[in-house]
Amino acid sequence: MKFISVAIKDFKELIRDRRGLFMILLFPMFFMIIFGIVYGNMGQTNETYNLVVVNLDEGAKMPLTNEEVNFGDNLTEIFRDSEYEDSDVKLFNVINASESSANKLIQLKEADAMIVIPKNFSQTIVDEMENSIAAQTTGTTSSNNNDTLKLSISGDSSSMGFGVSQVVLIKIIEDYQDNLVANIQSQTSGSSVKPLKLFEGDVGSVSGTESFSQFDFLAPGMMLFAILLLATTVAASLTREVEKGTLARLRISKMRSFDMLFGALIPWSIVAAIQVLILLTVALIMGFNWQGGLNSIVLAMFIGVIGGIGSIALGMIIASFAKNDTQAFNLGIMVVVPTSFVVGAFFQLPQVVVGEIMGRSFQIYDILPWTHILNALKSVLIYGNGLSAITYDLAWSAVLTAIIFVIGMGLFSRFRLSPEN
Fold first, then answer.
1. Which residues of 270-291 are buried (b: 16+ CB within 10 A; e: fewer)?
2. What residues form the membrane-spanning segments (predicted)?
């Protein structure tokens, strides 16, 4: 198999190329360290997030006064009125909707998070009040309701907005609960009443969110940026091979274009996996809140390989039009940096939804495989999700990468490997 010989040759040359190794390994590490220092302690900025509230609460009558109350409405107003500390900027733009409409808004990325308030929310709180009053009257200790209320919080796990929103929501819910309990205990003299736990927030399929910082959402983007940088080094390397006449000599040996290009694919794919591992290590040192175990690392490296193949294909396209390795390198930087911004490596771009596929919104940025690679890395490393949670993004990234690779191989074969060139 001739492509193995090409792979061994390219791997040896890769090790000797100090400038290339610096760009693809050390340069992203410096970025990761800088971002860790700058953003590591930043939990959130003064940005208003879109919150969909599904209030199913049917209300209840207060004990003694028979006053009609709806604690679901009350909690919704608290979400609507909450502001950043020392600022008049609202935390949430609250949207009231049905559950089906709320899910649609999340899928279309028009909302950052949704919270469902159950229909028995007010009644359960009133029951606890009545139990406390009865306990005060009889001189006994009230018993807590075993059916703790569940407030369901959900959203798009790949969204930075959801990551920040859920942390804030849980804090607001905890404060609201504390105030309610204090109010109940004050009305019943408190001395004979057990500490109450009326409800708890339930965040669907998301773990370890209590200590997220902005750096946690930027770290996977830096990994993607490093993977994209492979395109510059690959483009320069392939162009150098053309200038040295190596590819012309390989052509004489009747080696196929597929063998040449597939052989080059192997060492660079390994480098992409190593990049993810190295940058994850640096991110952990800088305080990245990594979720998941060894499986998540293996899965992240596999995702990196798919992204690396896409970057290699992009490097082939660049090398097809560059006259020398310097031009290829510079052209690669001009392509890679804007692409990193477009796919959201450094910050989330405005929503540009062009349609819906398989129940999920499809944005203009989704035509690039690296958008899906970034979503998958975030899902695995930030939220600790497994393979089943990233199937959609992996499928799209694989299909789009295959298309770009065919285009890259075709262009490079036509402009660099054909006999007339």
1. bbbbebbebbbebbeebbbbbb
2. 21-40, 217-239, 260-285, 297-321, 328-349, 394-412
Using one digit for the tens of pLDDT, what is the confidence trace for 200-220?
555 443 333 344 566 777 889
pLDDT at position 250 is 60
Looking at per-residue confidence, does 62 or 376 come out higher? 376
Helix axes 294-321, 325-342, angle to 10 degrees: 130
The structural domains of the chain, ordered by start, are 2-41+213-417 (no CATH), 49-203 (3.40.1710)
3-state secondary structure the chain: CHHHHHHHHHHHHHHHCHHHHHHHHHHHHHHHHHHHHHHCCCCCCCCCEEEEEEECCCCEECCCCCCEECHHHHHHHHHHHCECCCCCCECEEEEECCHHHHHHHHHCCCCCEEEEECCCHHHHHHHHHHHHHHHHHHCCCCCCCCCCEEEEEECCCCCHHHHHHHHHHHHHHHHHHHHHHHHHHHHCCCCCCCCCCCEEEEECCCCCCCCCCHHHHHHHHHHHHHHHHHHHHHHHHHHHHHHHCHHHHHHHCCCCHHHHHHHHHHHHHHHHHHHHHHHHHHHHHCCCCCCCCHHHHHHHHHHHHHHHHHHHHHHHHHHHHCCCHHHHHHHHHHHHHHHHHHCCCCCCCCCCEEEEECCEEEEHHHHCHHHHHHHHHHHHHCCCCCHHHHHHHHHHHHHHHHHHHHHHHHHHHHHHHCCCC
Poorest-confidence range of 70-74, 238-242, 339-343? 238-242
